[in-house]
Each structure stands twice: as C-alpha cells, then as structure tokens.
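The instructor's notes for this session suggest beginning with a concrete chain rather than abstract definitions. Hand out the sequence below and ask the class to guess, before any prediction is shown, which regions might be ordered.
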Amino acid sequence: MTDVGFLRIGEFARRVGVSPELLRAWERRYGLLQPVRSTGGFRLYTPEDASRVERMRNALAGGLSAAEAARLALEESRPPGGLLDHAAERLLAAIRRYDEAAIHAVLDECFEGFAIDAVLRSVILPTLSDLGTSWEQGTLDVSQEHFASNVIRGRLLGLARLWGRGAGPLALLACAPGEAHDISLLAFGLVLRSFGWRILFLGADTPTATIQRATAETRPALTVVTSFDPALLTAESEALGELARTTALALSGPGASAELCDRLGATRLDGDLVAAAREVASGNRVEPVS
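After discussion, reveal the predicted structure:
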C-alpha cells in the first residue's frame, strides 16, 4: 500500500483505492476510520486508518460480510494488551507512592504510543476502578484516591483544551446536582471529540436549571447527564423529563437505571464509555429531538 500521512478524505481515498462515499459509510456504520481534526477543523485520516482499510478489503475479498470484515479489522488494530496492562500496573504503583512525576511519565508513554480511546479503556479507567475498589476494601488511603483523581483529571483537562472548536455536532456534558465525580464524563467527551464532535463541558454538581439554560442557548445535538448515585437523578426526574422534551438527552453512570431512562424518554449510556461514545458518534444510540 502507498504510504499515507495525515490526509483529507479525497487524497486518502485515492491512496487506499476506496471511494470517499464507501469510506464514509464504513466510518459511520462500523467506526472503521478514526480521523483526527486539524486546527482548522478538517478531518484528517492517518496511517492507522489506512491499515484498517487494507484489512477490511482483505477480509471482504476473503468472503466475509462487511460487518464481519470491519469487526476483524478493528480487532486486529487494537494494541497488544500486555503493554497497556503493564502501564496500568505502573500507574497504580506510582499512585500508591504519591509519585506525580512517575504518573505523568506513564501517561506520556501511553499517549505517545496509543490512541486516546485505548489508553482510557485499558489504563486510566481500569486504574480508577481499582482505586475505588481498594479504597472500599481498606487497602488504599482516601488521600491516595484523591491525589490520583486530581492528577489524572488535570491531565485529561489538558487534552480537552479547545475541544469546543470545530464544525462538528455539539455535546453538552454535565454531572447531576450533587454529583462530584466527573472523570468518566471527561473520558467520554474526549472519545467523542476524537470523532469530530464539539464538547461543552459543565462538569461536577451542575444544577438542572443551569443545564436547561445552556441547552436552550447552545442547542446541542446531545445532552448527557451523569451520576453514580440513583437518588441524585431520581430527585431531578421532573426537571430531567422536561429537558428530554427539548433536547436529545442521555443519562449515564451507575445511577442511570433503565427504568428511569424509559420513564423520562432518555437514552441510557451504560457499560463501556469508549464503546458508548463510538456508538453515539455513529448515530446508533441517540435520536435527535424533532
């Protein structure tokens, strides 16, 4: 295959031998392509995208359906688990030592070598989950958990700089009133941004009235409200129901029950945050309010 750098869709299509229309279909339906954004807002396709296209074409030539071929191409493009698993172990060890420099060194290596969704899925989010479990079991001091959360949150906010720029659809992200944990919401926004979305991040403990005013002003394509505590969302159910009638609303986090989402007319974003962001970007999770 011809070497491919960071290219716009027309030249990229010429290099990989697939029409722009088919490439867009593969990107929209299967998440096969993962372009980055230039400072001017243009979608730029990478050598990794070219490799996935080549694997997709080979799988199709071997008789697989398009969905099966895309799944195989994406599976083969995932980074070796062992490398990131080891990074997660090093990150947790650095946290236990209160070693901020070591934390940043591990994250530097990860972000230089792997895509952001892989780092989030295999290193950062599992580490945060392990911290919570260790704290509950009494094997981690609350100071270590707070230290780690603040360092990692700051690092993610650095990656989020200017994520509201561009011409893509807008997602408004907020924590429910009383909810202080916003790192998972930051991670969701960063993955969504990698698909060209713009992000308006309101963060922790956001009054529902504030969310309503912001959606009325900015008209986002998607509004996400998250909470780890079901009681926080239940307490706001009336206001959230009103919000769901004016914006495409999704609830996320352990506090977002299927029953509450159904009752409010909201989409439930559960499980793997990276996968959820991919599905939202492909248009498979949230229908816009007419």
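Then share the key points. Residues 81-159 form a domain with the Methyltransferase, Methionine Synthase (B12-binding Domains); Chain A, domain 1 fold (CATH 1.10.1240.10). The two ends are 44 Å apart (CA to CA).
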